[in-house]
Automatic annotation (TrEMBL):
Residues annotated as signal peptide: 1-19
Protein name as it appears in the record: DUF1793-domain-containing protein
Residue ranges annotated for the Glutaminase A central domain, each copy included: 341-690
Cited InterPro entries: 6-hairpin_glycosidase_sf, Glutaminase_GtaA, GtaA_central, GtaA_N
Domain Glutaminase A N-terminal, first and last residues per copy: 106-336
A Gene Ontology BP annotation from the UniProt entry: carbohydrate metabolic process
Domain of life: Eukaryota
Alphabetized SUPFAM superfamilies for the sequence: Six-hairpin glycosidases
Keyword vocabulary terms for this entry: Signal
Amino acid sequence: MSPLASLTTILTFISVVCAATSWTTTPFNPAAIPLAVRSPYLSAWLAQGAGNALNDVWPTFWTGAIVGWAGFINVDGESYVFLGDPDVPNASFQKAVQKSFEFTSTQSVFVLSAGPVDLTATFLSPVEPSDLANQSFPFSYLALSAASNDGQPHAVQVYTDISAEWVSGDDSLTVNWTTTVGDTITHQVQLEDQTVFGEVNDRIQQGSAFHSTLNSTGTTFQTGQDVVVRAQFIQNGVLANTQDTDFRAVSDDWPVFALAHDLGTISAASDPVIFSIGHVRDPAVEYLIANDATQNRSLFFWSQISTLDDAITTFLQDFPNALARADAFDAQVNADASQISSNYAGLVALSIRQGFGAIEITLSKDASGQFNTSDIMAFLKEISSDGNVNTVDVIFPTWPLLLYTNPAIGKYLLIPLFAYQATGQYPNAWAVHDMGASYPKALGHNDGNDEPMPLEESGNMVIMTLSHFQRTGDNSIITTYFDLLDQWTQFLITDALIPENQISTDDFAGSLANQTNLAIKGIVGIKAMAEIASIVGDTARSSNYSSISASYVPQWQQFATSSDGKHLTLSYGNDSSWGLSYNMFADVLLNTSVFPASVYDMQTAWYETVVNEFGVPLDTRHTYTKSDWQSWTAALVTSTTVRDIFINSVFKYAADEENSQPLGDWYETLNGDVEGFKARPVVGGHLALLALQAVRTQTAMPAV
Ligand SMILES: *[C@@H]1O[C@H](CO)[C@@H](O)[C@H](O)[C@H]1NC(C)=O
Ligand SMILES: *[C@@H]1O[C@H](CO)[C@@H](O)[C@H](O)[C@H]1NC(C)=O
Ligand SMILES: *[C@@H]1O[C@H](CO)[C@@H](O)[C@H](O)[C@H]1NC(C)=O
Ligand SMILES: *[C@@H]1O[C@H](CO)[C@@H](O)[C@H](O)[C@H]1NC(C)=O
Ligand SMILES: *[C@@H]1O[C@H](CO)[C@@H](O)[C@H](O)[C@H]1NC(C)=O
Ligand SMILES: *[C@@H]1O[C@H](CO)[C@@H](O)[C@H](O)[C@H]1NC(C)=O
Ligand SMILES: *[C@@H]1O[C@H](CO)[C@@H](O)[C@H](O)[C@H]1NC(C)=O
Ligand SMILES: *[C@@H]1O[C@H](CO)[C@@H](O)[C@H](O)[C@H]1NC(C)=O
Ligand SMILES: *[C@@H]1O[C@H](CO)[C@@H](O)[C@H](O)[C@H]1NC(C)=O
Ligand SMILES: *[C@@H]1O[C@H](CO)[C@@H](O)[C@H](O)[C@H]1NC(C)=O
């Protein structure tokens, strides 16, 4: 074979591999598909890559660890697997054939044909940010419906089970379980030996997983060894309504928790049967209050329910309404994002569940043990990078998601940080980096040894505070924490113009003195504090800070512009350096007009000259980039062509079928390879254009 011929062969082979999916995909094939993604501990995905069908691989936790979730459908006595990759030695079944896959902001919908019947599996992870009880309820739906595809009636039964892998990061640990049968059949499984607030391999070693369905005619259940329970259904189409009470390790004869429905004889599409899956723990978060004391906090929904059993039943019964709300939300998001482009709409739809999947909304209890519904705090896990709690520079890139959907949740994420620093236990003059080193322990940093990002976090806190007020008119943070905000602003005033050698949020890129982008954040932050001072009527302070900020701008321009006037530098005086000056988005978002239009035009023109195949590098130190910061930059440039270069680059990476993990925000611009992060909430930053649109037009959040 000539070298050319062998190259042709290779290229042909590659194109076949890339076109591996034999089903239709709408809007595109993401690296991993969200199946049940509601919280840091309810986070099940289908690793998709170049095209895994729903029944090619097991669902995985965001880390990649398997969470057993199997599904079978029996049609006229023939059995087909539709979910997971189970091996059932003594029973014979086929693989259903995937026909289509579609995702929206809240749903992942698969259609598979099981011989003469088409099964539709809808994985709905509700996103209901306007209702804190609903948003904090860590449950997700699976709806199954079947329709004949050959015009003939068929007898159909459907089955799903979960394993105990949903409750532990260590499969050698012992679990126990119970099944309750009433209006609802619920399997509950948990570790026998729990560690409150303890994680193993990013899995909480506390609380329980729940697998439930409404009990109707022909509903059956069973617990027991995986191969035994699955063989029972495959061979009989019903379960035995029996419980295995030999409690044992997760991996010891793999106990599974199964539910089945007899759909009867179907021809047209059947009504869906609904399963729910959840992971609940209580208390959820440990939070440091004054005098080095700790407080236990519970998920918000507990304040609105009588029993968890009832709440699960209500959740299951509410499915038709929940679906209607989800459809309305999806349609609104899609309409808003489609005003930018269809690629943008796809990217946003993929990002929303991932963003909210890192956030939990909590309450404390008062002295009498009653929930204090005035004391709402939200917590965010810095998933995959280091597991910190409420990292300020992770909330900051995520902010557009909250601004667009419900800015109050943004406030609830900031409150724990403000309240902690107001206790005086944090010793540094600047804003703290995070609320705790490892989720869900929000224990502060009384030793002052948090990851030091003084300019980054001080600027972020002031900017987000003003942004929250502008979007909501709620001045409560400003009035309660004015002194802290002013304290951090003093730091900005001394450090923003000539930033000392320090790291920014992009800590993986290393530290640097005189970072142009950090200076931008600080200078906008000072102006934001001027606005904040004006909101509380402190006009003297307001005009003082306004003039300080304004006086920094020409000096900064002098320091930060390359000698040929073509671009901002990465650091002052280094003409060969440049980077994404994404912090200018804060100036646009807040309408503070700190920087002259000429700087925006210069940067816009520059980016167009430095774009690689998968986007514009973060800065000249490396060829990698960030999807969130490119999205922010897309929202600040002055040309739609350049805006679309950024959006289409991020889209190309997200849709390139080269990766198989929940979307990573840090990737290589030369070939689209993931650099290391995954499943982080910062993909909320992909909504920067939506947030800006909403703020500018003062439109309300999407109705749900
Ligand atoms: C499969 O069937 C064989 C023969 O009946 C039996 O010995 C074995 O235990 C069965 N295995 C399972 C996993 O049920
Ligand atoms: C919250 O969920 C309940 C069912 O649990 C439903 O009745 C209610 O409409 C939901 N609220 C919102 C605002 O979505
Ligand atoms: C299972 O273990 C938990 C935690 O130790 C315990 O509270 C519960 O009573 C046990 N349940 C059963 C059914 O043994
Ligand atoms: C479900 O409820 C029916 C009554 O509607 C009851 O006969 C049946 O036993 C229940 N199912 C189970 C598995 O207990
Ligand atoms: C928090 O909850 C844990 C587990 O229930 C308990 O051991 C601990 O004492 C509680 N802490 C506080 C401060 O109430
Ligand atoms: C409830 O929380 C609010 C806000 O933190 C606090 O001001 C109030 O004192 C609390 N109420 C009780 C009864 O603890
Ligand atoms: C930072 O920039 C200023 C202004 O150009 C310069 O005087 C100072 O030497 C620079 N600092 C470092 C560490 O490069
Ligand atoms: C303006 O603010 C700076 C920084 O807080 C302060 O040093 C200065 O005295 C203020 N000027 C006036 C006129 O208040
Ligand atoms: C200037 O920036 C380039 C690109 O980031 C870098 O390689 C170089 O080391 C920098 N020069 C100095 C003097 O810091
Ligand atoms: C932005 O600020 C300018 C004044 O600087 C004002 O004319 C304009 O209305 C503001 N835009 C919005 C959306 O508030």
